[in-house]
Specification:
Length: about 270
C-alpha cells in the first residue's frame, strides 16, 4: 500500500485511514489538505488505541471532504443512501450536512437496527448546528415500537434516548447543544448516555431501561416515522457512528478533536 504523503513532516500511515482517504479523494476528484488527512488518520489511530475502533460498524465523517459525494463515503460499513435528497448546498466542509428548513431530506444509513446484539449497541452523532427541530438526530425508522433506537428531542425541553428499548427515556429541562451526543447499551437493564445540552452543558449517566429484541428497520439520520407519518430534523451533523457498545467519553474526545482539527485545517 502506498503511503499518502502531504506537505509536512508526517505520513498518513494507518491502513484503514489510507483506504478511506483514497476513496474520499477519488469521490472528490482531488486530494484533501494534509492537515485534514492527518486529522482523519489520528482519529483512526487513537480510536484503535482506545479499544473502541472495532465496535464502530457504520460511520461517516460528514465533514472534511471537498464534496457531498466525498462526505458520504463510509469510514466503516455501508455507504448511506441520500434520501430527498440533500444537495451540494446542504453540505459544509467544516460543519457537515443539514438543511435548516428540512421537510424532506434524510440519510438512510443502510445499517439495520437489528444488525448489532440486543445488549451491545451504540448510536452517536456530532451536532454542529441545532435546528428548530431535533426530532430525531439519529433513529431507527419506526419510533416507539419495542426494540427501537433513538437520540432525539422528545418534547419541549426534553431530550430522549433509546437503544433497543421498550420506550425512550427523557431528560427534562434541557435542549440539545452543539457537540457530541451518544448512547450505548452494554446490558439488558440499562443505557449509558452522554448528551451536550444548552443549559446543563454536558450530562452523562446510566438509566434503567429494559432491552427488547431489536426492531427490524434501518437507522436514519435526521428522520423517523411515527404512526406512518415521517418527521424530519433541521439540525446539522458532522459525524455519526453505529455499532456495538463502547466508551462514550473516549469517542467524544476523538470525534471532538477530529471536527476541531478539520475546522482548523480548512481555510
Amino acid at each position: 500500500m502506498t503511503l499518502v504523503w502531504r506537505p509536512g513532516n508526517n505520513a498518513i500511515t494507518d491502513p484503514d485511514a489510507l483506504i478511506y482517504i483514497d476513496k474520499v479523494e477519488k469521490a472528490d476528484g482531488q486530494n484533501l489538505e494534509y492537515d485534514v488527512a492527518k486529522a482523519i488518520n489520528d482519529f483512526v489511530v487513537n480510536c484503535k488505541a482506545d479499544g473502541i475502533w472495532s465496535a464502530i460498524k457504520a460511520c461517516c465523517i460528514l465533514a472534511g471532504a471537498r464534496t457531498l459525494d466525498g462526505a458520504l463515503v463510509p469510514l466503516a460499513g455501508t455507504a448511506p443512501t441520500n434520501e430527498g435528497p440533500f444537495v451540494s448546498g446542504d453540505y459544509n466542509r467544516k460543519t457537515g450536512l443539514g438543511d435548516a428548513s428540512n421537510t424532506s431530506k434524510y440519510l438512510n444509513t443502510n445499517r439495520n437496527n437489528n444488525a448489532d446484539p440486543q445488549n451491545s449497541k451504540s448510536l452517536c452523532v456530532y451536532v454542529s448546528s441545532v435546528g428548530a427541530s431535533t426530532f430525531p438526530l439519529i433513529a431507527s425508522d419506526v419510533y416507539n415500537t419495542p426494540g427501537f433506537s433513538i437520540i432525539a428531542r422528545l418534547g419541549t425541553d426534553t431530550l430522549g434516548c433509546g437503544i433497543n428499548s421498550q420506550s425512550a427515556f427523557g431528560v427534562s429541562g434541557a435542549e440539545f447543544a452543539t457537540g457530541f451526543s451518544g448512547a450505548s447499551r452494554s446490558s439488558s437493564s440499562s443505557i449509558n448516555y452522554r448528551l451536550n445540552t444548552s443549559n446543563l452543558q454536558l450530562i452523562t449517566g446510566n438509566v434503567s431501561s429494559t432491552s427488547a429484541a431489536p426492531h427490524d428497520s434501518n437507522i436514519n439520520l435526521l428522520s423517523t416515522t411515527v404512526n406512518n407519518n415521517r418527521f424530519y430534523s433541521s439540525s446539522r451533523l458532522a459525524f455519526y457512528s453505529i455499532g456495538e457498545s463502547l466508551d462514550l467519553a473516549a469517542l467524544d474526545t476523538r470525534v471532538s478533536n477530529l471536527i476541531t482539527a478539520i475546522g482548523a485545517a480548512i481555510p
